[in-house]
Amino acid sequence: MNVHEYQAKALFEKFGVPVPKGAAAKTPDEFINALAGLPEGPTMVKSQIHAGGRGKGTFTDGFKGGVKFCRTKAEAREAAAKMLGNTLVTLQTGPAGRKVQTVYFTTANEIKKEFYLAILLDRAASRPVIVASTEGGVEIEKVARETPDKIFKVVVDPAYGLADFQVRDLVTRLGLNAAEAKSASRLIRALYAMYWETDASMVEVNPLVTTPAGEVLALDAKVSFDDNALYRHPEIVALRDLNEEDPKEIEASKHSLNYIALDGDIACLVNGAGLAMSTMDIIKHFGGSPANFLDVGGGASKEQVVAAFNIILGDPKVKGILVNIFGGIMDCDVIAKGIVEAVRLVGLRLPLVVRLEGNNVAAGKATLSASGLTIVSGDSMADAAQKIVKLVA
Amino acid sequence: MAILITPDTRILVQGITGDFGGRHAGLSLDYGTKVVAGVTPGKGGLTFEHGPHRVPIFNSVADAARATGATVSAIFVPPPFAADAILECAGAGLDLVVAITEGIPVRDMVRVKRAMAGGNTRLVGPNCPGIVTPGSGDRSHGGCRIGIAPGYIHRKGHVGVVSRSGTLTYEAVYQLTVRAIGQSTCVGIGGDPVNGTSHLDVIRMFNDDPETRGIVMIGEIGGSTEVDAARWIKAHCRKPVAGFIAGATAPPGRRMGHAGAIVGGAEDTAAAKISVFRECGIEVAETPSDMADALVRAAKARGVALN
């Protein structure tokens, strides 16, 4: 689960990670109050959407920049008025962009130097890793590619936690002076505590800055959380912003379905993430284009299959459907009944190819053929994929 | 001989009194697997009944192991209790824990893996379909089935299968079986970022297992365990290996964060993994329908009889 920058920074403050003074506003009326808490002078206005590249983004009405530096608070109010309710397109939002429903005002601090700091899981080590770089405020992938020696990593032993020597090592390699190093050490410890205690998947600060006044601040904050751990963090769940999520994905998650929309025209309904991914792959292999990833999971019920069909058919690009089920846990006949019921309920007019294999498959196939519906049967994944590609072409 | 489990292995099931665990304990009993105990704290003394089978339930793993001689546990308990259930097995000194549970928080698994490091208990999973060593009966009856795989699609034989995905494993096994190519053992290592046993761990076991003559390795985008295994195979493996990587068409934007790409390295896309497979002499399945045929090609090239 992702959260907005202003929410992430509130969590930072709670854990003692210093951030620039700021306040969020969701309506123009709230601008005055939000700005009242900030000192007069240079102010940043930041569009709050769950996507990167905001500063270089453009709004659909032509207004440029989802993050603006303003010399005065009055200027900040004007910029915020242009952003709020407007749709911001960045490299990460896709052409449709995202509607800005919250703006965040912060003081614009003078910057001495920019750094990069992130904490996430090192999969190979199965331990948390802190990644830091002297090159902040730029794309970290670019740094990794061009000057990998400027990226430092510290892997944390979960039995002991972040050790003092590791923090010293990081601040030394970042080249900080003694006073900065002291502040940065406190910040890194606080950030690690937040990562660990909130079950974050990733905490990224880009840039982390030092200021001429000697402060060390998290100027930006990008945080995501482990969905599997949300049950023990109601305070994090409360931060979820449904406006930032695809309505079809929200609907899918209500039925415990894992759905991701794609650009193609062949919808897939599959059990298991690996099989779902490879069903998309095989459609592509035979010249088609998948419209979605949809994993109905291990124990799909008839209701889930009906819900899955409704979600798939809610996508106007879809010209055909491929159902690929290998019943391990799940009974193929349950799936077959779900398909028949779904087709009857939604009055399907698109070509449908079904490939069933596994647990109780004979009954499942019998249910499909007894239904009298036009369902094309596929014998193998390759056969089913070729059939749907041909039917859609 | 197979790896990890044989038809004689005695299994206990944690979560046998739940719907999910009970259902699959029953299916394992039907398959002929020696499910000798159930464990549910607070329900010790009760009995799990399935057809003619009567399986005693214990309050703790240690009690169950002591009373029944079980050496392996299958875990079906809900995610909030799964980490504790795994550690209980390590505490009781079991040989193997197979965690089927899906949705365990990453932080729990980071701690569990650290706690188990250096110990004698092996963990397979979590979020995995389990392990099957097929038996010699009709439709592989009499084998050892731990987890949720459909037992009947297997066939006793000489191919080892290792995979991160459940249903994709069944797909591969089914393709082998319809070609009358049997399996020694099929291992689902699970799809979570932190798991107990890697591709490489299983490949090493298959390489050392005299019964196993060929290997199917199924992977996915993300992480580097397939690549690590491939490099080891190139240097050490004496058996033909076929490989498949799922996720060539997965949208890159859906991967988490930017820093993940640094830590994971440049080798976690499908294209990169497939190219390492080729470099390491692994026969690549072009589509998921080609997995068994790819192994047949690899075996033929090396003059190995899979049957």
What does it look like?
The complex is a heterodimer of chains A (393) and B (307). With 393 residues, chain A is α+β, with helices and mostly antiparallel strands. Chain A folds into 3 domains: 21-107, Dna Ligase, domain 1 (2-Layer Sandwich), CATH 3.30.1490; 113-237, ATP-grasp fold, B domain (D-amino Acid Aminotransferase, Chain A, domain 1); 246-392, Succinyl-CoA synthetase domains (Rossmann fold). In chain A, 36% of the residues lie in helices and 24% in strands. In chain A, strands 8, 9, 10, 11, 12 and 13 form a 6-stranded antiparallel beta sheet that branches. In chain A, strands 1-7-2-4 form a 4-stranded antiparallel beta sheet, with helices on one face. The two termini of chain A are 37 Å apart. Chain B is α/β, with parallel strands linked by helices and 307 residues long. Chain B folds into 2 domains: 10-124, Rossmann fold, CATH 3.40.50.720; 155-302, Succinyl-CoA synthetase domains (Rossmann fold), CATH 3.40.50. Chain B has 10 helices and 14 strands. Chain B has helices at residues 19-31, 61-68, 79-91, 106-116, 166-178, 199-208, 225-236, 259-264, 270-279, 291-302, and strands at 10-14, 34-39, 47-50, 53-58, 72-75, 96-99, 122-124, 130-133, 144-147, 156-163, 183-188, 214-220, 241-246, 283-284. Chain B has a 7-stranded mixed beta sheet, sandwiched between helices. Chain B has a 7-stranded mixed beta sheet with strand order 9-8-11-10-12-13-14, sandwiched between helices. In chain B, helix 5 (166-178) links the parallel strand 10 and strand 11 (183-188). The interface between A and B is large, with 67 and 66 residues.
